[in-house]
Design goal:
Helix content of chain A: 25-40%
Number of strands of chain A: 7
Bound molecules: iron/sulfur cluster
Largest sheet of chain A: 7 strands, mixed
Strand content of chain A: 15-25%
Number of strands of chain B: 19
Distance between the termini of chain A: 34 Å
Oligomer: heterodimer
Shape of chain A: globular
CATH superfamily of the largest domain in chain A: Aconitase, domain 4
Radius of gyration of chain B: 21 Å
Helix content of chain B: 25-40%
Number of helices of chain B: 15
Order of helices and strands of chain A: EHEHEHEHEEEHHHH
């Protein structure tokens, strides 16, 4: 997995509470292969109006946020089912860091498995950042995992509190499989003994 | 040191420990069409599959139940066809056996696993479907996992797991005529609630469980997940060993003897204790019917729809009200007065030979009043049923005899209820929209479903004079 150490990118504000995984990635697209690119399904229904046109009031549809890699979202982002397609859609659309007052639990763990940072900030801070991003011309931020900071376009730096395990995985580009493969020798030793003891299971 | 069955299997599979989790060795991983994300991950991260021979894939969730003789050509929906083709190309690329269309043992992963001998006592089995708990009926520790974890097992043959607590559910007493293992598990979920076993590995014990056939035990373990359990297990006994003998992947000769020595140790020691115990009196159980949108919303067939106004817990009351609205039912309405539209007999809960035999006995010489789909769990079940002439009984009664798969259990292969349609179903989930958008599901046993097909409503099959002779 790609390590995430520092990220200088556009941040898009998303002022909508309780965005669930169904809104992130509607169920009818689960049959689509990932190879088609899940970016096209991200927020598919909520970013469109009744006439199925892209709604310009939806921040992510606006040209100035088109290359965003960061979302500053509202409370309970990624709630609902464990559908991992929601995270794939974000990843395929280029997002690598998410900030919100709170996240759906399984969603956050799926993000980590896919190398996306989820960091919580209190509600007033999120409100302030969202307002800033909406009002200023410059929406570029710097996320620094090592120093646990988020630097705003204004130059103001906000400190983050990251889980040490999450930090370790992101910086080293480790996903769970990589971590487990650090136990490769132990697995092989276990397997050898196991197969000797229960030969019929694998023969 | 005395230990429970679950603890013995757990200890046997711990590779290493980290904080409050252990790295567990996985003997078998079961895949289905939705596992394509796992294969994508393996490819993207340029990993290899550690032991392809320990993985088994199934075309079951998406395969149509009609036009099967046309093979892939019989699949008209391009997206569905794509799903079926994807699992074939992915498994081919990694050398994994696929029980796909045209395979003699094609069928639902939880039906084929035991009948092919993939499932054995003492194994750790991870499956890409939450009802993997089914395999615990043979004394395995079996549980469902999501796509990232499927990729993890394929790459490492292991999974991180926190150790579940242990719960013993003891069921005793003779069942009344017509009361099947489906009624037993529905009654249990009704008793302990859909969150009643959260965090626990459940072991079922007691004379009622011992008396159940292996297939009936699978129904019990299958729905353990609907009580929130991490797994459901039953210790292997003579019936288990008899059931396994001769299945394709079951050892023979001296390997069988060696396996038996191990399998016979797989039971809870007399002195061992569980973190929690629940006792169920089987004599009190009558045929069960779900009335709501969660498998804990269950009543006796002789009962009435509960009244939310009498529920003191406000959150519960709101859930009941919402369920009644979705289901289009009124408080105090009698279960036997609910008019039904359709019947579905199938799914990994109830699509095995014994289930079909009972349904056939109920339908023999009768005519279905309702459109009725009968979907065997596997090609093997289908062949066995046809050898006994069961399909003729069904067809003579006017029911549809279809090709194996998940079908209307999850309604993603094209078989589904229309909005507002009400079905008696032998599957395991009555969630909103589960069997089709707006569809209304009542979960029941195969005998109850078959009787509903004939009469158009729920009958108390315990009153049928022949119920006594059904070998349930
Ligand atoms: S029959 Fe239903 S519950 Fe069973 S494996 Fe298929 S979809 Fe899952």
């Amino acid at each position: 997995m790609e390590p995430l150490v520092t990220l200088k990118a556009t941040a898009a504000p998303l002022r909508l509470a309780n965005v669930n995984t169904d809104q992130l990635f509607p169920a009818r697209f689960i049959k689509k292969p990932r190879a088609v690119g899940y970016a096209q399904y991200l927020f598919h229904d909520i970013r469109r109006n009744d006439a199925s046109e892209l709604d310009q009031n939806f921040s992510l549809n606006q040209a100035r946020f088109s290359d965003a890699k960061v979302i500053v979202a509202s409370a309970n982002f990624g709630s609902g089912s464990s559908r991992e397609g929601a995270v794939y859609a974000l990843y395929d659309a280029g997002f690598r860091a998410l900030f919100a007052p709170s996240f759906g639990e399984i969603f956050a763990s799926n993000c980590l498995k896919n190398g996306i940072l989820t960091a919580t900030l209190d509600q007033p801070t999120i409100d302030a950042i969202q307002s800033l991003l909406l009002s200023s011309d410059d929406a570029s931020v710097i996320v620094d995992i090592n120093s646990e900071t988020l630097t705003l376009p204004s130059g103001e730096s906000i400190s983050l509190t990251l889980d040490p395990f999450q930090k370790h995985c992101l910086i080293n580009g480790l996903n769970e499989i990589d971590l487990s493969l650090e136990f490769h020798d132990a697995i092989s030793a276990f397997e050898a003994t196991y197969r000797q003891q229960y030969p019929w299971i694998s023969s | 040191m005395s230990a429970t069955l679950f603890e013995k299997i757990w200890t046997n599979h711990v590779v290493t420990d980290r904080d409050d989790e252990s790295l567990i060795y996985v003997d078998r991983v079961l895949l289905q069409e939705n596992s394509f994300h796992a294969f994508d991950k393996i490819r993207r991260e340029q990993r290899s599959v550690r032991n392809p021979a320990q993985a088994f894939a199934f075309s079951d969730h998406y395969v149509p139940t009609r036009n099967r003789e046309l093979g892939l050509g019989g699949i008209t929906d391009p997206e569905i066809r794509n799903m079926v083709e994807l699992i074939a190309s992915d498994t081919d690329a990694y050398g994994i056996e696929l029980f796909g269309i045209g395979h003699d043992y094609q069928g639902i992963l939880h039906v084929v696993g035991p009948e092919y001998g993939i499932t054995q006592p003492g194994l750790v089995i991870a499956g890409a479907d939450s009802h993997t708990s089914t395999h615990g009926a043979l004394g395995a520790y079996a549980f469902g996992i999501g796509s990232s974890e499927v990729a993890h097992v394929l790459a490492t043959q292991t999974l991180w797991r926190s150790k579940p607590r242990t719960l013993q559910i003891t069921v005793t007493g003779e069942r009344q005529p017509g009361v099947s293992s489906k009624d037993l598990i529905l009654y249990l979920i009704r008793t302990i609630g859909s969150g009643g076993a959260v965090g626990y590995a459940v072991e079922y014990t007691g004379d009622t469980i011992e008396q159940l056939s292996i297939e009936a035990r699978m129904t019990v373990c299958n729905m353990s997940i609907e009580a929130g359990a991490r797994a459901g297990l039953i210790a292997p006994d003579e019936k288990t060993f008899d059931y396994m003998r001769g299945k394709p992947l079951i050892p023979t000769g001296s390997a069988w003897d060696q396996a038996m020595q191990h399998w016979q140790t797989l039971k809870t020691d007399d002195q061992a204790t569980f973190d929690r115990d629940v006792r169920i009196d089987a004599t009190a159980i009558v045929p069960q019917v779900t009335w709501g949108t969660n498998p804990e919303m269950v009543v006796d067939v002789t009962g009435t729809i509960p009244d939310p106004a009498k529920e003191n817990d406000l959150e519960r009351r709101a859930r009941m009200e919402r369920a009644l609205e979705y289901m289009g039912l009124q408080p105090d309405q009698s279960i036997q007065s609910i008019p039904l539209d359709r019947v579905f007999i199938g799914s990994c809960t109830n699509s095995r030979l014994e289930d079909l035999r009972i349904a056939a006995r109920v339908m023999d010489g009768q005519t279905c009043r309702l459109p009725t789909m009968i979907v065997p769990g596997s090609e093997q079940v289908k062949r066995a049923a046809e050898a006994e002439g069961l399909h003729q009984i069904f067809e003579n009664a006017g029911a549809e005899w279809l090709a194996p798969g998940c079908s209307m259990c999850v309604a993603i292969n094209g078989d589904k209820l229309g909005p507002g349609e009400r079905a008696a179903s032998t599957s395991n989930r009555n969630f909103e929209g589960r069997q089709g958008q707006g569809g209304r599901t009542h979960l029941v046993s195969p005998a109850m479903a078959a009787a509903a097909a004939i009469t158009g409503q729920f009958d108390n099959i315990s009153n049928y004079s022949e119920a006594r002779s059904w070998n349930l």
